[in-house]
Amino acid sequence: MSGWLQHLPILPVVLPLFAGAAMLLFGETRRRARTILALTSTIAQLVVAITLLGMSGGLISAPWGSDVGVYALGDWAAPFGIVLVVDRLSAIMLTLGATLGLATLVYSLARWERAGAHFLPLSQFLLMGISGAFLTGDLFNLFVFFEVLLAASYGLVLHGSGATRVRAGLHYIVVNLVASLLFLIAAALIYGVTGTLNMAELALRIPLLVGDERALVDAAAALLGVVFLVKAGAWPLNFWLVPAYGAAAAPVAGVFAILTKVGVYALVRFETLLGDAAPAPFGGEWMFYSGLATIATGTLGMLAAQQLDRLAGCTVIVSSGTLLTAFGFDGYALTGPGLFYLVSSVLASAAFFMVIEMAERGRAIAADLLAVSFEAFGLQDPQDPRQIESVVGFPIPAAMAFLGLAFVLCAVLVTGLPPLSGFVGKFTLLAAAIAFEPGPGSNAPHPGLFIAALLLSGLAGVVALSRIGTRIFWSTERSVPRLQWTEAVPVTALLLLCVALAGGAGPAMTYFNTTAQYLEGRGYVEAVLPGMTVTEGFAR
Amino acid sequence: MEIILALAIGIMGGSGVYLLLRPRTFQVIIGLSLLAYAVNLFIFSMGRLNLGRAPVILPSHGSNPAFYADPLPQALVLTAIVIGFATTALFLVVLLASRGLTGTDHVDGREPEQE
Predict the structure, then answer these.
(1) Is residue A494 assigned to a domain?
(2) Cβ A192–B46 below 8 Å, yes or no?
């Protein structure tokens, strides 16, 4: 049994790979077999992720003893072999990805899965890429898993076709292809200078570089930072995000909620590994100021959005910006609260995209634009209920009641209003920022900027969401949307998870703070390369 | 020899970036291909430029690394080329779909308004 358990780290990559490949063998006709395969694989991935979460947190005894599990692919030892590393941060992100995968899969089985070809295999490959990116301990392997998840996402963003989707998808594909080329340049340059691609060994070698070599690695790190910021949706690299996420099908947009966080995760991973010697983009002022700019432009986007899907894209941008700013603080004071906010915002964004799609059914096409022009020109809506005296009350169908409640919950979570997990996340971030003491002699940016940005973005979110929400749910000219159980249940599950996160905020914050303390130490490097010392930065 | 390689990478990279910023999808895809060539040459050159060395271990030379070319960048280039194939093919399909659905080959999906 223990011999089988030690292969757990590879399962989140291998399970979706084989499931997706088997589904392609089944072809388009055996729908039932493919559905069962997809559900089995995704549920298995969730179980594995939760087990790894328990193992890295010390709740379950792990076959690798300590907190950090290192899995050597092909039994080739690091630094020459590629390793998968399961530590607290990877386990949190894995569980998040698996949860989102299961929720959006169940949602898609209602009708979106049939809107195009190969939805189920593509979503399995997307999960494979996401899991691999979180687990890998090798820089080029990170590139490969990035490509896997990007290739699957290109297919998924086009799912369902149509001019809007293909146009937004074209821009999304070009931007990400250019980012991949930059990633290649950066990875090759880092290898050429340091002689290694293993992240733990880079953490040992890069601090020792001086002079020209350090300058080359700084340039490569700048390119790498650009790549991760493109993925994370930082301004001014995020113009592709709102159209792409708005045009994508609802279950696809739901699972894309975690894709921006893959970029944030990569930035945090390199920041924590390289520590004080980190090049400019990883940690410190660049992350802080780009995060602030992202929050600012995302807030303006939220206020200016006339359609609900664009508003949702802007909320994803604001949450990304908040995370970048939080992780850009000196030291690790905001890392724990940042992780809490990450989990809460990902779950809330995914639920939000699915609620939006359900709420938009039954509305007239261009109803939003009509409403805006009514407001702008001061015209009276011909269906204005204030003009109708014979109305006593409208019966609210169950579907509308559910959607309204779900929308309100999502709005509360996304903007950080009490009492749910969005509020807990923002509150802990604010408390840590107010209590922040910069180290002696550092010219760190003032935490007041972050506090102001956090509060103003919350206010703008409340304004924008309530304005659009009243327009959607309180207009008289709409038909009741028809929902299915397989669509309502995943949304409910995600929202209940957020409620549980708020209720169990104490243990959750303890876990995240322990993760932050672990990231501050050298546990990762010690686990991957036990006892290795490096005397010079250059390999040959 | 280094100057030739550097010039090649630079010229292809510069042309690729120029074409990438053009408004027609065909120019964009050619730009992406040129950029991919430049990047692949760059990765390959990270193994340092040698003459007459192969990444194959010969019994006569033993395990002294000075006699061999670095195999790792060559493996990286192979991976990058293969990934480039797939993404270029995918982008071609999207290009054709966009042309069919929007009726124009402009990257924005519609012709710019005449001033």
Answers:
(1) yes
(2) yes
* Minimum-distance CB partner of B101 among A166, A187, A188: A166
Q: Which residues of A150-187 are buried (b: 16+ CB within 10 A; e: fewer)?
A: bbbbbbbbbbbeebebbbbbbbbbbbbbbbbbbbbbbb
ipTM of the complex: 0.95
Q: How many domains are contained in chain A?
A: 1
| Tokens found for residue A225 | 């930072």
pLDDT in tens, A131-167: 999 999 999 999 999 999 999 999 999 998 888 999 9
> Which residues of chain A fall below pLDDT 70?
1-2, 283, 362, 364-395, 440-443, 476-477, 535-540
Domain residue limits at A359: 2-377+397-528
CATH number of B2-49+69-102: 1.10.287
pTM of the model: 0.92
B43 → closest Cβ in A167, A173, A184:
A184
Domain boundaries, given as residue ranges, for chain B: 2-49+69-102
Choose from A174, A189, A201 for mutation: most chain B CBs within 10 A.
A174
Q: What secondary structure does DSSP assign to A402-416, as a single string? A: HHHHHHHHHHHHHHT
Neighbours of B2 (CB within 10 A): 9
